[in-house]
Design brief:
The chain has 313 residues and is α/β, with parallel strands linked by helices. The chain contains 12 helices and 12 strands. 53% of the residues are buried.
Length: 313
C-alpha cells in the first residue's frame, strides 16, 4: 500500500510535537503534505514557531508549515499555558527554527491541497481546535467531499472534560468550528479523552524514550517530564496522557484502537456544558452516526510503536 497523504493541523503543545514526530518517522505509512498551525494551546505565533522547531528536531525541514487562524470563529481565544508552559513546548531547550514559515494562509493550503489531489486521497489530522478546518469548509464547501477522512483528537464522553467539567480543551476552544466539522458529512474518526487517557507515559515508558539517547528521544522524554506534573496532580495517574499521537498511531496501526460508530453533537449554546461532545454511545436517539468514536487502546502496543519509530529519527 502507498503511504497515506495527510495534513496535520496543530497547536503544539508537547503531545502535538510527539504526534508530528511519529508521522515524520513513518514515511512508509504516512506522506505528510504539510502542517497548518492554529491558535490553541498557545497563541498562533508560538504554535507556528513550535511546528517548525519540531520539524527541525526531526531533521525534516522540507515539510511546509503554514500559519492559520489566530482566533476561534466567534469567541475569544482560550489557551493552556498552565499545562504546556509559556512556550507551549516547555521542558527541553530547543533552538529557534531557521526554516521560514511557508507562504500563504493555512486555510488556503488546506483548500488548495484537497483540490490538487484526487478526491478521497487526503486525510486531515487536526490535533487542536478545529478553526482552520471549519474555516476551510466554509470558504470552499466543494472540498468536503474530497476529504478521505478526518482523524482528530478531541472530545470526551465517559471521561467528561479536562478544561471544564464537561468539555475537552480542543472542542471547548472553538465549539462552533467543531459543530461545523461534525455536521459536514466528511468521514470522521475521533480520539477522545476516553482513549488518550489510556496512553499514559509511565516512568518505564519515558525511560525508554530517554534510552534512545538521541536528540529526539531525549527531547520527548523532557517534554513528557514537564507536562506530566500537571496531569499526575490532576488525575492522580501514573503519568501524563499522550493525547495527540493517538491520531498518527491510528493511521499506522488502526488495530491498536477500538471504538464504535455513533452520533456526536457539539454543544454550542449552554454556559454549563459549552463544548461538550454529546456522543450517543448507547444508541438511545434516532440521530444518524457521524463519527467513529474510539473507546479503547492497546497501550503497550502504542508505546512500542512510538518508541520504535522515534528511534528512526
Amino acid at each position: 500500500m502507498s503511504a497515506r497523504k495527510i495534513i496535520i493541523d496543530t497547536d503544539p503543545g508537547q503531545d502535538d510535537a510527539v504526534a508530528i514526530l511519529l508521522a515524520l518517522a513513518s514515511p512508509d505509512e504516512i506522506e505528510l503534505l504539510g502542517i497548518t498551525a492554529v491558535a490553541g494551546n498557545v497563541p498562533l505565533a508560538l504554535t507556528a514557531k513550535n511546528a517548525r522547531i519540531v520539524c527541525e528536531l526531526a531533521g525534516k525541514t522540507d515539510v511546509p508549515v503554514h500559519a492559520g487562524c489566530e482566533a476561534p470563529l466567534k469567541r475569544k481565544l482560550v489557551t493552556a499555558e498552565h499545562v504546556h508552559g509559556k512556550t507551549g513546548l516547555d521542558g527541553p531547550v530547543l533552538p529557534d527554527p531557521e526554516m521560514p514559515l511557508a507562504e500563504g494562509h493555512g486555510v488556503d493550503f488546506i483548500i488548495d491541497t484537497l483540490r490538487a489531489h484526487d478526491p478521497g486521497t487526503v486525510t486531515l489530522c487536526p490535533l487542536g481546535p478545529l478553526t482552520n478546518i471549519a474555516t476551510a469548509f466554509q470558504k470552499a464547501p466543494d472540498i468536503v467531499t474530497r476529504v478521505q477522512e478526518i482523524v482528530l483528537m478531541g472530545g470526551a464522553y465517559f471521561e467528561v472534560g479536562n478544561i471544564t467539567p464537561t468539555a475537552e480543551f480542543n472542542i471547548y476552544v472553538d465549539p462552533e468550528a467543531a459543530d461545523i466539522v461534525f455536521k459536514s458529512g466528511a468521514p470522521i474518526v475521533v480520539m477522545p479523552l476516553d482513549v488518550t487517557h489510556k496512553a499514559l507515559v509511565t516512568k518505564p515508558r519515558n525511560d525508554a524514550f530517554r534510552a534512545l539517547d538521541s536528540g529526539v528521544g531525549i527531547a520527548v522524554a523532557e517534554m513528557t517530564d514537564f507536562f506530566e506534573r500537571f496531569d499526575k496532580e490532576k488525575y492522580g495517574s501514573e503519568g501524563a496522557p499522550l493525547h495527540d499521537p493517538c491520531v498518527t498511531a491510528y493511521l499506522i496501526r488502526p488495530e491498536l484502537f477500538k471504538g464504535r460508530r455513533v452520533n456526536v453533537e457539539i454543544e454550542t449554546q449552554s454556559d454549563l456544558t459549552l463544548g461538550m461532545t454529546v456522543a450517543d454511545w448507547w444508541g438511545v436517539t434516532d440521530r444518524a452516526p457521524n463519527a467513529l468514536f474510539m473507546g479503547d487502546l492497546d497501550a503497550d502496543g502504542f508505546f512500542a510503536l512510538l518508541t520504535e519509530r522515534l528511534a528512526r529519527l
